[in-house]
Amino acid sequence: MTPVPLATLVAELGGELSGAPELLITGLAPLESATGSEISFLSNPKYQQQLAASEAGCVIVSPAMATVAAARGACIVTSNPYLYFARLTQLWRKLRNANAPAMPRIHPSAVVDPSATIAATARIGPLCVVEAGATVGEGSVLTSRVTLGADCHIGARCLLHSGVVIGADGFGFAPDGERWEKIEQLGAVRIGNDVEIGANTCIDRGALQDTVIEDGVKLDNLIQIGHNVRVGANTAMAGCVGVAGSATIGPNCTVGGGAIILGHLTLGAGVHISAATVVSKSISKPGHYTGMFPIDENANWERNAASLKQLHSLRDRIKTLEKENKP
Question: Which residues form the catalytic set?
Answer without folding.
Answer: 227
